[in-house]
Amino acid sequence: MIPLVVRPARQADELVQLLRRHGHSPLYCPLLETRPGDELSRLPALLPTADIIIAVSAHAIHFAHHFLLQTGLTWPHIEYFAVGQASADAFAEVGVKAQSPQDPRSEGLLLLPALQAMTGKRVLILRGNGGRDLIARELASRGALVHYCATYERHYPELDGNELTRHWQTAGLDSLLITSGELLQRLLELVPSQQQPWLHDRLLVVPSPRVAEQAEAAGFTRIVIAQGASNQALTAALELRKME
């Protein structure tokens, strides 16, 4: 198959190599770039006071860990949680064992038994700038004291949607690997309106029911929900569809 990979460079490189090993011919076009967040300097003060650390994305972990290496700090010996397998894998890469739900969404995380009795617990959420606040609101309602740290920032590069769409069509693009609702929205904004029917007819692989619902509302008709946003989960979902 000829899937489109839109992840930022670090994860995209790994995904492209994995897809090629499975016989696919991926096209790479990063729709999102990530940069160090302006709240990283708060980590030395926030980490020692936390009882629980939650990461909502692998990017949040990568930028936090790089900052810790630069400053000579280490991850404290406390409880760690990740929204999905990709984030749990990112924690594992830096030597941290994190719990993650089978349902790779904020809603799934909030069902974990260890996050039910939260009275007096101090929670630090690592994330990018902006994003959903469901986890913080719900944990606060359970009695937790919650702090955010934006360890990275999202940046959308300027791209020519007309030129990109023509290139994808000429190359025979037949599938899309989209790992978040914001990446899906960015793709929809880039592709010209007259080419939207073509886009909607591509096989779309997404990491969760929430993104699938967003895609269906936008007009996509061939949607596959992977077991999370990890590169392995995305490739496995594409492999299953290829064999059908």
Automatic annotation (TrEMBL):
Q: Which residues form a coiled coil?
A: none
Q: Which Gene Ontology terms describe the biological processes this protein takes part in?
A: protoporphyrinogen IX biosynthetic process; uroporphyrinogen III biosynthetic process
Q: What class of enzyme is it?
A: lyase
**A molecular function GO annotation:** uroporphyrinogen-III synthase activity
Q: Per the UniProt record, which residue ranges are transmembrane?
A: none
Q: What is its EC number?
A: 4.2.1.75
The UniProt catalytic activity note for this protein reads: hydroxymethylbilane = uroporphyrinogen III + H2O
Top-rank lineage group of the source organism? Bacteria
**UniProt domain Tetrapyrrole biosynthesis uroporphyrinogen III synthase: residue ranges:** 13-235
Q: Which Pfam families match?
A: HEM4 (PF02602)
- SUPFAM superfamilies named in the record: HemD-like (SSF69618)
- Which keywords does this Swiss-Prot/TrEMBL entry list? Lyase, Porphyrin biosynthesis
The pathway it acts in is: Porphyrin-containing compound metabolism; protoporphyrin-IX biosynthesis; coproporphyrinogen-III from 5-aminolevulinate: step 3/4
Under InterPro entries, the record lists:
4pyrrol_syn_uPrphyn_synt_sf, 4pyrrol_synth_uPrphyn_synth, UROS/Hem4
Show the CDD domains listed in the entry: HemD
Q: Which family does it belong to?
A: Belongs to the uroporphyrinogen-III synthase family.
Q: Which PANTHER family match?
A: UROPORPHYRINOGEN-III SYNTHASE, CHLOROPLASTIC (PTHR38042)
Function per UniProt: Catalyzes cyclization of the linear tetrapyrrole, hydroxymethylbilane, to the macrocyclic uroporphyrinogen III.
Query: What is the protein's given name?
Result: Uroporphyrinogen-III synthase
Q: What is the lineage of its organism?
A: Bacteria, Pseudomonadati, Pseudomonadota, Gammaproteobacteria, Aeromonadales
